Amino acid sequence: MPTDNPYQNALDVQDACNLSGVVLQFAIDMQTIWDNEPGLSTEDRNTHPVVMMYVDKLASLTHRDLVGATGYHYAKRMCEQQARVWVAPEKEMPSTNRQKNLAVAKAGEGEIVFECPEETCHQVETVTAAWMAEHGTPVCPDCDSDMVYEP
């Protein structure tokens, strides 16, 4: 479970297997470094020990050491092709909802009320911050959508 210490998180993440979870925590830890270590240059941040640990883990999870230049060029070509035709979803992406919900849980509010984001579904669920820390974002029992917190 992540802590408020980016250095410890960088060590703990080395056992992770969920790329998106690693990326989300990396972003949180980078913001923590930005906020708590003022005066670092861009180069200092780019070569920060926490950054190096996360980047190494991301390389490991993507098998970058096995992919090599050929795999990079293939991935680049595919991204260039998809970038031209990609249409972003009109509704908010669930990962963004999860970030908001996690922020609410970390704020330590007593009970948090979640609603299903689907227009045809009207499910509401109330959970505690402790429940959410253990189980994550509630999922709608009717339609399997990630529920969202609406203040």
Descriptive notes:
Helices cover 56% and strands 8% of the residues. Helix 1 (6-12) runs antiparallel to helix 2 (19-36), helix 1 (6-12) packs parallel to helix 4 and helix 6 packs across helix 7. Strand 1 and strand 2 (124-128) form a beta hairpin. The chain folds into two domains: 6-85, no CATH class; 94-149, no CATH class. The protein is mostly helical and 151 residues long. The model has no long low-confidence stretch (mean pLDDT 78).
Looking at the structure, what is the overall shape? extended
The main sheet comes to: 3 strands, antiparallel
In which order are the strands of the major sheet placed? 2-1-3
Q: How much is the radius of gyration in Å?
A: 19 Å
Helix content: 55-70%
Strand-pairing-aware structural class = mainly alpha
Rounded to the nearest angstrom, the distance between the terminal CA atoms is 26 Å
Tally of helical runs: 7
Order of helices and strands: HHHHHHEEHE
Please report the total strand number as a whole number: 3
What low-confidence regions span 5 or more consecutive residues with pLDDT below 50? none
Number of domains: 2
